[in-house]
Amino acid sequence: MAFQTQGDHDDVMSEINVTPLVDVMLVLLVVFIVTAPLLTNAVKVNLPETAATSPPEDKKAVDISVDRQGKIYIDRREVAPEALEAEFQALKAADPDPTVHLHADEGVLYGVVAKVMAAAEHTGITKLAMLTVAQ
């Protein structure tokens, strides 16, 4: 650290003031903490309410969403019901033991959800979790 006296006005100060940098970084951190939970599920579904449970802590799971109209989404990308089994086979080829989280709207017909679960079973996916809202 360099101390200045009243006679040392000719020297150039070579230290960087990091306080503004720290302030900006803390603001960015708060912004990311607030917005990150909003980006997890872009498909709007009303999940049914059940008793509180927690999914197992695994690697990154693939999100399958079924909305009220029966449209199926894999990680926010719409998939035709006929192509669902091929999509699951591609997931299985990329990862031999994928984890799948199924988000189904409470107003969707049970048959659509059953077809999604059957397609997962036919391709050999064993880690399938149905997500709900805790009461």
Automatic annotation (TrEMBL):
Alphabetically list the UniProt keywords. Answer: Cell inner membrane, Cell membrane, Membrane, Plasmid, Protein transport, Transmembrane, Transmembrane helix, Transport
Q: Where in the cell is it found?
A: Cell inner membrane; Cell membrane
- From the record, give the transmembrane residue ranges: 20-39
Q: Could you tell me what this protein does?
A: Involved in the TonB-dependent energy-dependent transport of various receptor-bound substrates.
Q: How does it assemble?
A: The accessory proteins ExbB and ExbD seem to form a complex with TonB.
Concerning its family, UniProt says: Belongs to the ExbD/TolR family.
Can you say what this protein is called?
A: Biopolymer transport protein ExbD
